[in-house]
Amino acid sequence: MRVAEQIRTRYLSGQLATGERLPSRQQLSAEFGQSTDVVTAAVALLAEQGHLSLRRGRTPEVIAPAGPPRALDRSADAAPSGDYSADSTVVPAPAEVAARLGLPPEASVVKTAYRYRDGDRIIALRTSYESLAQTASSAVALPEAGPHRGAGVRRRMELLGHPVAAVQETVAIAEASPEQVQQFRIPPGAAVIAIARTHRGESGEALETSDLVLPASRWTLAYTIPTDRATG
């Protein structure tokens, strides 16, 4: 749309610097001769494309270009690249998580919340759940603490004597929740990619399950699917 293109031209040409705030919607409306609804839509488009940062109660801010969409490799050990932080807590399993792990309702699980960053941007959110009974009192009780911190699900489960035999994923497109809108600084109603992943043992039992959320306009999914040459 024309208004979005004109705003984009301003920061590409240096008229608007990274970190600078846009004029108010009323000012932009008067300048471009368009309604505030048109300006709001243009700002939302630029935010979804990763050019503007939206924060509640603040004027949109120009951010460094996000570059082309990132490719997320969905091989068995794949995780978003970049810096991340992680916090683990023991919580009662939500109903859906208990069902995915094959646990009784509200059984104790280790919940680990990951935030992946590129500079000051949060680019992905992941929440992992493991049965507390499975890992308690072991050296791998917490995914990001102890001697095996950051080793990944497969390695940690191997150390417990539960090798991962299969990884199951469900991929969906969803509307960003209010919390995700704030975390990713994207417009309300923007789409996110939601990936539910479960690691399973040799008997099909669930060893770990997680939910990965990505802003849809900033990521593509790249899958590596092994084939059996003997069977084609």
TrEMBL record:
Question: Residue ranges of region Disordered?
Answer: 57-88
Provide this UniProt record's keywords sorted from A to Z.
Answer: DNA-binding, Transcription, Transcription regulation
Q: Which InterPro entries match?
A: Bact_HTH_transcr_reg, Chorismate_lyase_/UTRA_dom_sf, Tscrpt_reg_HTH_GntR, UTRA, WH-like_DNA-bd_sf, WH_DNA-bd_sf
Signal sequence range: none
Could you list the residue ranges that cross the membrane? Answer: none
MF terms from GO for this chain are: DNA binding; DNA-binding transcription factor activity
**Pfam families (UniProt xref):** GntR, UTRA
What's any GO biological process attached to this entry? negative regulation of DNA-templated transcription
HTH gntR-type domain span: 1-65
Q: Which PANTHER family match?
A: GNTR-FAMILY TRANSCRIPTIONAL REGULATOR, MANNOSYL-D-GLYCERATE TRANSPORT/METABOLISM SYSTEM REPRESSOR MNGR-RELATED
Spell out the protein name for this chain.
HTH gntR-type domain-containing protein
Origin organism lineage: Bacteria, Bacillati, Actinomycetota, Actinomycetes, Kitasatosporales
